[in-house]
């Protein structure tokens, strides 16, 4: 049975990773699908988000990472997936996700949505929270997988509010490894 875990993953968080790992225990194959959300201005381009997810999930043999621009149900039909995997943090998530599940069911009657309650330690976590903390130079190591920390810090290194780079990160940054594709958020936008 193939399950899709769709999202923007900008960036992938430890909460996302928790849902991915648990999904991989429940289903034969999980496909993390990065979608472009036209209503958001992403910090990272799709190609970099795909790379971040791949680097964060090398320990999961039944996981695939892909991108798609279109309806989730269309991608599910192409891949012959029968399950959409979704994480729930709070009641507000449930209302939105239930509406999406009902909408998807009208488009593809054979597609089921499975909700996983977010683990308690990640119930507050979102990509927007990570970006806001990083923008002000706060610690993010406990919020995102190690493969993503340096990418985020590079994006905010030129931030006039304060650098999110640590001393050890500065040593690892070289002219050969400039920040790729990231777009720091302007002040006051949580993304």
TrEMBL record:
Keywords: ATP-binding, Coenzyme A biosynthesis, Cytoplasm, Magnesium, Nucleotide-binding, Nucleotidyltransferase, Transferase. It is an enzyme of class 2 (transferase). Its cofactor is Mg(2+). ATP binds at residues 8-9, 16, 87-89, 97, 122-128. Pathway: Cofactor biosynthesis; coenzyme A biosynthesis; CoA from (R)-pantothenate: step 4/5. One of its GO terms (cellular component) is cytoplasm. Substrate binds at residues 8, 40, 72, 86. Its EC number is 2.7.7.3. This is Phosphopantetheine adenylyltransferase.
């Amino acid at each position: 049975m193939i399950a899709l875990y769709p999202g923007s993953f900008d960036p992938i968080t430890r909460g996302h990773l928790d849902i991915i790992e648990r999904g991989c225990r429940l289903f034969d194959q999980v496909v993390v699908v990065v979608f472009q959300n036209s209503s958001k201005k992403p910090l990272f381009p799709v190609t970099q988000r795909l790379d971040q997810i791949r680097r964060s999930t090398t320990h999961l043999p039944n996981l695939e990472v892909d991108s798609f621009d279109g309806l989730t149900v269309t991608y599910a039909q192409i891949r012959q997936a029968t399950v959409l995997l979704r994480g729930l943090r709070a009641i507000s998530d449930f209302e939105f996700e239930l509406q999406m599940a009902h909408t998807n069911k009208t488009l593809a009657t054979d597609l089921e949505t499975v909700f996983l309650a977010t683990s308690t330690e990640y119930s507050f976590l979102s990509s927007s929270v990570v970006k806001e903390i990083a923008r002000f130079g706060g610690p993010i190591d406990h919020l995102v997988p190690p493969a993503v920390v340096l990418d985020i810090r590079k994006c905010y290194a030129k931030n006039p509010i304060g650098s999110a780079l640590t001393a050890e990160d500065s040593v690892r940054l070289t002219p050969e490894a400039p920040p790729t594709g990231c777009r720091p958020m302007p002040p006051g936008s949580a993304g």
